[in-house]
Amino acid sequence: MSYIIGIDFGGMSAKAGIFKDGQFLAKKTAPTSMTDGVERTAKIMAELAKDLAEENAISFDDVVCIGIGSPGVIDSAVGEVVFWGNYDWHHVPLGPLVSSLTNKPVFVTNDANAAALGEAKYGSGKQFASSVLITLGTGVGGGVVIDGKLFEGFRSAGTEIGHSVIVKNGIPCGCGRKGCFEQYASARALVRQTREKMSLCPDSAMWEGLNSLEEAGGKTAFAAAAKGDRAAQEVVDGYIDYLAEGIADIVNILRPEAILVGGGVSNEGKRLIEPLKEAVDRKIFVSSDIVPLAVKKAELGNDAGMYGAAEYAISRL
Ligand SMILES: [Zn+2]
């Protein structure tokens, strides 16, 4: 009997899932906080893993290894969180700490990378050997799976998909450059584009039910566009074109079989995915009628990182 535990560690909570032979069995969540500090945080994760096994009548002795998807810059070779701004962590040996508390091998990767691996193996990418997950949230995150393996780059510092420049001298980005993909294609960027249009178009249906620009969100433009509002449709078309611009670069360089789109904006479903696929197809070097390219909505949502953390541990064992 051999089980694997995958933990998706975040600033507010840690979510652990237990797996056997590639099958998800059960999950459990515990709160996390910056004020816990390093030692306590490692203890929370170790106890979460043990409790999860115990509550499902699984002997912890039968757990082979643990994978962790963590925010920040991770040196996955040694399981270290090199830097994570939100917790002000510098060179935290998270993997070795959890390992010493559990007596299990513990493997750590970046949370976005874990999500990409999870989605590739268990979600909308499972019929493809190579896929790229693009997560549209506060920023644009993602990860790359090539021939079934996660590609992390040297010292796991690669695949910062959101920071390729699509507009030279464009909007300043937190990374120090201007015009980064995530400044145009994140959910936050969509909200900004929506509000800019609304301020120019006081008669737009985007204003329906809203009293101020601040009330407009990531769904506002898509909802009004679905009702036939022209200004809203322009926002949607413009946003999708930016998104396609960044995706086309990724496709031209890596040529995965599939682009998997996750994050809050992906919940627009077909209204996002179908025009996105067409726009990407117009921009890529070899179109999808010659070399097939799937563009799909990610399926696992917030569980992708947990699945991927387990899969990552298996890949490293
Ligand atoms: Zn940037």
List the defining traits of the structure above.
Nucleotidyltransferase, domain 5, about 35% helix, alpha/beta, globular, five-stranded mixed beta sheet, about 325 residues, binds zinc ion
What does this structure look like?
The model has no long low-confidence stretch (mean pLDDT 97). The protein has nine helices and 13 strands. It has a five-stranded mixed β-sheet with strand order 3-2-1-4-8, sandwiched between helices. Strands 11-10-9-12-13 form a five-stranded mixed β-sheet, sandwiched between helices. 37% of the residues lie in helices and 23% in strands. It has two domains: 3-119 and 303-316, 2-Layer Sandwich (Nucleotidyltransferase, domain 5), CATH 3.30.420; 127-299, Nucleotidyltransferase, domain 5, CATH 3.30.420. The chain has helices spanning 37-55, 94-102, 111-122, 182-185, 187-200, 220-226, 230-254, 270-283, 304-316; strands at residues 3-9, 13-20, 23-31, 63-70, 73-75, 80-84, 89-92, 106-110, 131-136, 140-146, 149-151, 258-262, 294-297. The longest helix is centred in the last third of the chain and has 25 residues, at 230-254. The chain starts with a strand and ends with a helix. Helix 8 links the parallel strand 12 (258-262) and strand 13 (294-297). It is globular, with a radius of gyration of 21 Å. By secondary structure, the protein is an alpha/beta fold. Residues 163, 173, 175, 177, 180 line the site of zinc ion. Zinc ion binds at residues 163, 173, 175, 177, 180.
